[in-house]
């Protein structure tokens, strides 16, 4: 196809038809829920997260009503505990993080000129997991069974089953399930940003939103897994009585605080940065100029991401750690103010240098910056340990965190809502209602939370369901309550505005006259994402590249057709976005939803101690995943390559480190390795905290022999896989199969030897934290060996079925990535449990 | 070997070092490694010896090493950023603009990471005990 062929309107119409057919959404009362396209899944995701936000907001209003006057009896202490625990947990896990994922699933393909993200079915799986887990956790409040230990669930209050009921299990298992969906989203978004950019969009031209999303998704990989590791230990204690957090049996409740806050503090930035990313898109649009200081924003995003992992102990200033340790975290907490301020100054400079249109989104953006800066400044105050000792666990902290989260996450999201609503629905929201709502929100947030600084300093503790009149805090609390209801009225006005949207006329295309790719979308939606994938020469192609929209619409760029009726997008290189391949994307299917429900069964049945149904659900999940992967991935194309226009011919299959699948495996395993390092941290943490770790009677358990045997056999398995991959690539299929089979046997043997160590030395995990953590590490590694065996069996089956050949070997290459990480896990586990006790 | 040739060779060794998305994160990774090292050093020496080292050789060595890594990557990034071409902003779809952008961003991160490492080192000077 040449440039000039696209002059033919009949050809263009035929292409339109083929694209439309390939991307048609499934219809029907049931079938529509099998959709996997980002516009559908992203919209469901956003609406669901918004719904959870409203529910969590109502919980807050009940709390404020209870606290309006001293010695109130609207709700009792137990209900109040459930209210604040669920309010915090839902806002964080069911609103802020999923909302960022949801918005990114909608926006990212548009911003990158891609037809969809690389793994649409994975997005759908993430959504269904989120929905099920969210309903499970949020629904518990209606059965008086909600978690009540505070959103950070400190043991021993929450690990002792006589002090906390089912709610703690619901929190742990329900939210673990949701964390799975967050990691799924992180994989999808990272691979999307790195590999699905349009040709020419080098790293220096990437929309800033994509930079932020890349950074935040990487943060998720390092922040969520420690919490998953913590959840695992926590549930082992609650369900099996393994004493990780029980000080009387060699455990330590502080281990939970560490694992929780290694997640919990980066989490704040995980929800803050994507909201700021929305500013990076809308500020240049309304300032009518390119953003100033693009590399400074990249500095701010990357710098904040790193520093945010050095802040976690500032939540633990009052735990009695050595002051030198506190000071390290205090220093990092002060340092993070630098990159945070840099991005705010960049936005101010861009506004200053531009010709600003004071639109509704801009009003929200500037208002939220003001609120956020107040929260940031009190943050600098509480980052100083001696001040924090005074303010700790008072309403001062409540005020600080709400200023940060409302100014840094919620109000920017409303700015984004007003800005991007026309992109999603084709219609603008009402400027008038938007502005009225803004003033309700702005006045409400300040009236609600500013007095809390004062009530906190005067001694109002957090998490009390009532307070005596003699404290003299009645009027401050009443002001806060009035503010909360004013704020809620603002949210209600926005809801009214949204509800009226279907009756409004369509807006013009690109109604804000923005310069970035996402505004190529038509008001009347086409599901194909983009008509042809453009060649990018500027950060603001709609402004800078002549005739850009027309050329895209007339299919004059790449991949303007779907000749084979398949959903396709272009894969490019990481640094310079050179096109290297066309991938076929997943189509609508029941598989993601059914897999999510099966996996949900594992978590939900375990909560109620129904272990047999949980096991059945686990096996069902495995079967579903196998079915999904077998039928939907690494498909051998009908021909090796296809033309995408302008004389370019791209392969339809790639494997190894340039392929999206390889990256997805690598990223998933990074998360897995991080969770594992959380467990290893636990082992060494116990050693630093206790003089008797390992205890004398277990000083030579599990011994050296079995761990070393497991290590050697495990590494042999790894060598066979790597060797098998090389032999296979050179055409030695039969030998490669034999090597993979040997690797499979070695993996299983390694698992058996690894478990034999603690088993044969009679280590009882419920007696002491030492045998418990040794069993956990050995069990984790054995489970990975079992997964390795399943994967190797899968590759062998693919090979015998003719679906994995020397020319088409993505399955084998991806499994090799898993095996690298398996080898690393094996090495660390067995050196630790085998040799470390001998060395101490 | 004539002088222009030598300067040509001299220029080349650092120009051959590629700068990518991975090198962008070297300075903050050095900060992170130093931070983790500091935390573990303090925690282990306080927990296991019960007192603070009077002259923390290990700590000083680790800090100097982190600062050197950051300075080196900053210096390299500064060179890349000065690759000849149009004035900033580096927003054309060209190899040289991508290179200069990555150089600039890495240089800025090196600055932030340097400050971060110094911040982390200060408590050791000013606190100096395990209480």
From TrEMBL, chain A:
<keyword id="KW-0408">Iron</keyword>
<feature type="transmembrane region" description="Helical">
    <location>
        <begin position="611"/>
        <end position="630"/>
    </location>
</feature>
<dbReference type="InterPro" id="IPR035973">
    <property type="entry name" value="Cyt_c_oxidase_su3-like_sf"/>
</dbReference>
<comment type="similarity">
    <text>Belongs to the heme-copper respiratory oxidase family.</text>
</comment>
<keyword id="KW-1003">Cell membrane</keyword>
<feature type="domain" description="Cytochrome oxidase subunit I profile">
    <location>
        <begin position="17"/>
        <end position="549"/>
    </location>
</feature>
<keyword id="KW-1278">Translocase</keyword>
<dbReference type="InterPro" id="IPR013833">
    <property type="entry name" value="Cyt_c_oxidase_su3_a-hlx"/>
</dbReference>
<keyword id="KW-0472">Membrane</keyword>
<feature type="transmembrane region" description="Helical">
    <location>
        <begin position="474"/>
        <end position="499"/>
    </location>
</feature>
<keyword id="KW-0349">Heme</keyword>
<feature type="transmembrane region" description="Helical">
    <location>
        <begin position="124"/>
        <end position="143"/>
    </location>
</feature>
<feature type="transmembrane region" description="Helical">
    <location>
        <begin position="363"/>
        <end position="387"/>
    </location>
</feature>
<feature type="transmembrane region" description="Helical">
    <location>
        <begin position="170"/>
        <end position="194"/>
    </location>
</feature>
<dbReference type="GO" id="GO:0006119">
    <property type="term" value="P:oxidative phosphorylation"/>
</dbReference>
<feature type="transmembrane region" description="Helical">
    <location>
        <begin position="399"/>
        <end position="421"/>
    </location>
</feature>
<feature type="transmembrane region" description="Helical">
    <location>
        <begin position="326"/>
        <end position="351"/>
    </location>
</feature>
<feature type="transmembrane region" description="Helical">
    <location>
        <begin position="662"/>
        <end position="684"/>
    </location>
</feature>
<dbReference type="GO" id="GO:0046872">
    <property type="term" value="F:metal ion binding"/>
</dbReference>
<keyword id="KW-0479">Metal-binding</keyword>
<dbReference type="GO" id="GO:0004129">
    <property type="term" value="F:cytochrome-c oxidase activity"/>
</dbReference>
<dbReference type="InterPro" id="IPR036927">
    <property type="entry name" value="Cyt_c_oxase-like_su1_sf"/>
</dbReference>
TrEMBL record, chain B:
<feature type="transmembrane region" description="Helical">
    <location>
        <begin position="107"/>
        <end position="128"/>
    </location>
</feature>
<feature type="transmembrane region" description="Helical">
    <location>
        <begin position="56"/>
        <end position="78"/>
    </location>
</feature>
<keyword id="KW-1133">Transmembrane helix</keyword>
<keyword id="KW-0812">Transmembrane</keyword>
<keyword id="KW-0472">Membrane</keyword>
<protein>
    <submittedName>
        <fullName>Membrane protein</fullName>
    </submittedName>
</protein>
<feature type="transmembrane region" description="Helical">
    <location>
        <begin position="21"/>
        <end position="44"/>
    </location>
</feature>
């Amino acid at each position: 196809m040449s440039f000039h062929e696209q002059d033919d309107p009949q050809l263009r119409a035929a292409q339109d038809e083929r694209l439309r057919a390939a991307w048609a959404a499934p219809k029907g009362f049931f079938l529509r829920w099998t959709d996997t396209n980002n516009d559908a899944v992203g919209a469901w995701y956003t609406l669901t997260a918004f719904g959870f936000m409203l529910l969590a907001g109502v919980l807050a209003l009940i709390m404020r009503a209870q606290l309006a006057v001293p010695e109130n009896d609207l709700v009792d202490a137990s209900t109040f505990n459930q209210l604040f625990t669920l309010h915090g947990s839902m806002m964080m896990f069911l609103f802020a993080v999923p909302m960022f994922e949801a918005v990114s699933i909608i926006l990212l393909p548009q911003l990158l000129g891609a037809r969809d993200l690389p793994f649409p079915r994975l997005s759908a799986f993430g959504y269904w997991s989120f929905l099920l887990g969210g309903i499970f956790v949020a629904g518990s409040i209606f059965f008086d069974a909600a978690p009540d230990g505070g959103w950070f669930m400190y043991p021993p209050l929450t690990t002792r089953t006589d002090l906390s009921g089912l709610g703690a299990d619901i929190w742990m298992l329900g939210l673990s399930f949701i964390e799975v969906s967050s990691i799924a989203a992180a994989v999808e978004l990272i691979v999307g940003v790195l590999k699905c950019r349009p040709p020419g969009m080098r790293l220096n031209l990437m929309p800033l939103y994509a930079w932020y999303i890349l950074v935040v998704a990487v943060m998720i990989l390092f922040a969520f897994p420690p919490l998953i590791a913590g959840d695992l230990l926590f549930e082992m204690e609650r369900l099996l009585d393994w004493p990780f957090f029980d000080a009387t049996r060699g455990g330590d409740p502080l281990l939970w605080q560490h694992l929780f806050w290694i997640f919990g503090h980066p989490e704040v930035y995980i929800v803050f940065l994507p909201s700021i990313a929305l500013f990076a898109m809308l500020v240049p649009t309304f300032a009518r100029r390119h953003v100033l200081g693009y590399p400074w924003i990249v500095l701010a995003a990357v710098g904040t991401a790193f520093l945010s992992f050095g802040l976690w102990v500032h939540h633990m200033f009052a735990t009695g750690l050595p002051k030198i340790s506190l000071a390290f975290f205090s220093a990092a907490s002060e340092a993070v103010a630098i990159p945070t301020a840099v991005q705010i100054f960049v936005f101010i400079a861009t506004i200053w240098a531009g010709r600003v249109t004071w639109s509704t989104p801009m009003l929200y953006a500037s208002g939220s910056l003001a609120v956020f800066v107040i929260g940031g400044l009190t943050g600098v105050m509480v980052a100083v340990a001696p001040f924090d000792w005074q303010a700790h666990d008072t309403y001062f902290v409540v005020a600080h965190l709400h200023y940060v989260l409302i100014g840094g996450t919620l109000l920017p999201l409303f700015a984004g809502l007003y800005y991007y609503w026309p992109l999603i629905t084709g219609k603008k929201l009402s400027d008038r209602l938007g502005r009225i709502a803004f003033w309700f929100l702005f006045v409400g947030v300040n009236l609600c939370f500013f007095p809390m600084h004062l009530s906190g300093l005067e001694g109002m503790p957090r998490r009390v369901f009532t307070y005596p009149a003699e404290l003299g805090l009645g009027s401050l609390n009443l002001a806060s309550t009035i503010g909360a209801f004013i704020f809620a009225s603002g949210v209600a006005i926005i809801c009214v505005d949204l509800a009226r949207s279907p009756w409004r006329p369509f807006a013009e295309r690109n109604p804000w006259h923005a310069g970035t790719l996402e505004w190529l979308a038509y008001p009347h939606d086409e599901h194909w994402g983009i008509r042809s994938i453009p060649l990018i020469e500027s950060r603001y192609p709609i402004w800078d590249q002549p005739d850009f929209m027309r050329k895209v619409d007339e299919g004059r760029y790449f991949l303007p057709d779907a000749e084979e009726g398949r959903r396709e997008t272009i894969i490019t290189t990481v640094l310079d976005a050179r096109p290297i391949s066309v991938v076929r994307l997943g189509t609508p299917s029941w598989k993601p939803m059914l897999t999510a429900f099966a996996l949900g069964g594992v978590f939900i049945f375990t909560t109620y101690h129904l272990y047999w149904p949980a096991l059945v659900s686990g096996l069902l999940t495995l079967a579903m995943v196998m079915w999904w992967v077998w039928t939907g991935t690494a498909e051998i194309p009908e021909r090796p390559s296809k033309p995408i226009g302008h004389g370019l011919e791209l392969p339809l299959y790639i494997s190894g480190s340039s392929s999206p699948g390889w990256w997805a495996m690598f990223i998933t395993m990074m998360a897995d390795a991080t969770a594992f390092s959380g467990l290893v941290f636990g082992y060494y943490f116990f050693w630093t905290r206790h003089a008797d770790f390992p205890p004398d009677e277990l000083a030579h358990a599990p011994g050296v022999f079995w761990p070393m045997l497991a290590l050697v056999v495990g590494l042999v398995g790894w060598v066979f896989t790597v060797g098998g991959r090389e032999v296979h690539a050179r055409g030695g299929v039969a030998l490669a199969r034999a090597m993979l089979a040997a690797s499979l046997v070695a993996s299983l043997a390694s698992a058996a030897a690894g478990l034999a160590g603690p088993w044969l030395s009679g280590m009882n995990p419920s007696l002491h934290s030492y045998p418990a953590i040794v069993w956990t590490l050995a069990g984790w590694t054995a489970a990975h060996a079992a997964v390795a065996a399943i994967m190797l069996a899968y590759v062998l089956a693919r090979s015998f079925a003719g679906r994995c050949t020397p020319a088409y070997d993505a399955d084998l290459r991806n499994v090799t990535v898993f095996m690298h990480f398996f080898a690393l896990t094996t090495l660390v586990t067995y050196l630790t449990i085998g040799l470390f006790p001998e060395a101490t | 070997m004539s002088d222009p040739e030598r300067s040509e060779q001299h220029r080349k060794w650092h120009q051959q070092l590629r700068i990518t998305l991975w090198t962008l994160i070297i300075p903050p990774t050095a900060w992170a490694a130093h931070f983790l090292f500091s935390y573990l050093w303090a925690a282990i020496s306080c927990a296991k010896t019960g007192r603070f080292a009077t002259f923390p050789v290990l700590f000083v060595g680790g800090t100097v090493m982190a600062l050197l890594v950051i300075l080196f990557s900053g210096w390299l990034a500064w060179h890349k950023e000065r690759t000849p071409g149009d004035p900033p902003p580096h927003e054309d779809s060209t190899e040289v603009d991508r290179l200069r952008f990555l150089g600039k961003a890495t240089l800025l991160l090196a600055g932030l990471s340097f400050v971060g490492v110094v911040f982390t080192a200060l408590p050791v000077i000013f606190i100096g005990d395990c209480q």
